[in-house]
Specification:
- By secondary structure, the protein is of the alpha+beta class.
- It has a domain of 59 residues: Rossmann fold (3-Layer(aba) Sandwich), CATH 3.40.50.
- 32% of the residues lie in helices and 11% in strands.
- The protein starts with a helix and ends in a 13-residue tail after the last strand.
Length: 90
């Protein structure tokens, strides 16, 4: 959807990134080849799945309490689709 918005907005509504920023999710390969290149949130889904499933399978096999919380840190890949913060905004 972010890729479509980056192409649709400049022609009809607002310039990206001049008037509006656009950010995608999952950092697909196409994001870096677009014009403007798309800022994206990179989340390694396969790695996250593996890290989440490993404690669960250990719990099931050993009848142990699984960890209550696991924190995953996505990576923000900033590219051309995000403009400067306007002056006077928080």
């Amino acid at each position: 959807m972010a890729i479509s918005a980056t192409h649709y907005l400049p022609a009809r509504v607002a310039d990206v990134p001049g008037h509006m920023s656009d950010i995608g999710d999952d950092d697909i390969e196409l994001a870096s080849y677009m014009t403007p290149s798309l800022t994206s949130l990179r989340q390694p889904g396969i790695e996250f799945g593996y890290q989440s499933a490993t404690p669960l399978t250990g719990h099931l096999e050993k009848q142990q309490q699984p960890p209550s919380e696991t924190v995953r840190d996505p990576q923000l890949i900033i590219r051309e689709s995000v403009g400067e913060k306007p002056a006077g905004t928080g």
